[in-house]
Design a protein that fits this description.
The chain is of the alpha/beta class. It contains seven helices and ten strands. α1 packs across α2, α2 packs across α3 and α5 packs across α6. The protein is globular and about 45 Å long.
Length: about 220
């Protein structure tokens, strides 16, 4: 999902001319969900995300992914638990994705065009324990909360959402150092639901272990 209100997010491609980690190093990092951490060590100050909502170097993106893992674990999430994400093209979108990849979480992006009822169906169906949402869609999310009683963690990015804690506050105080026990997460993508309710499709965990053309794709 992406926002249509003029925001742009671009990423820096990783090429053989700029970095030279071996294929073995890429594979080993990818198998643990730590490919971003590998490039954060090689290109720490290079821009990873440039957007009107803020920029991130590879080091900053990697550090915030580690902080988010620790924040979610502090709130009871463990490997195998599901995290739903409803967000526009902001740096935090990447932070959530990379946090889930290294913590063994199942991440489900939720399209912000959906109604509260439709969003709640996906959140409930994927078994999400945590919902991380963009405050730009506060009205829809506030209406979704009563329909998703199994959520134990709700974090708001970039502002206030009724019933949510602040994402930035959740990260504050946590170490940005790489977590010591990474495990590869998965992603659940939902079909459009044109012939009924959307169906969840689990992406195989091994898909991130291949050599990347870039760390993040912003569509």
């Amino acid at each position: 999902p992406r926002a249509d209100h003029g925001d742009q997010m671009t990423t820096t491609s990783v090429t053989e001319q700029t970095v030279a980690p071996s294929d073995e190093a890429r594979t080993q990092a990818g198998e643990k969900g730590m490919l971003l951490a590998l490039y954060a060590r090689v290109l720490p100050d290079a821009p990873a995300i440039i957007s009107e909502f803020g920029n991130r170097t590879f080091r900053e993106l990697n550090q915030n992914a580690n902080r988010l893992v620790r924040a979610l674990r502090e709130r009871g999430l463990r490997a195998g638990d599901s995290v739903a994400l409803l967000c526009g093209n902001r740096p935090e979108f990447g932070e959530v994705i990379y946090a889930c990849l290294r913590a063994g979480f199942r991440n489900t992006p939720v399209n912000w065009h959906l109604t509260a009822d439709e969003s709640a169906y996906i959140i409930n169906d994927c078994g999400a324990k945590a919902l991380i949402a963009d405050a730009d869609f506060a009205d829809i999310m506030a209406a979704t909360v009563p329909l998703t009683p199994k959520l134990t963690v709700r974090l708001a990015i970039g502002g206030e959402i009724a019933g949510f804690s602040r994402y930035a506050d959740a990260l504050a105080g946590h170490s940005g150092d790489d977590i010591e026990d990474p495990s590869l997460g998965t992603r659940i993508l939902y079909t459009s639901g044109t012939t009924g309710r959307p169906k969840g499709v689990v992406r195989p965990a091994t898909f991130v272990a291949a050599r990347p053309a870039s760390l993040t794709a912003a569509g």
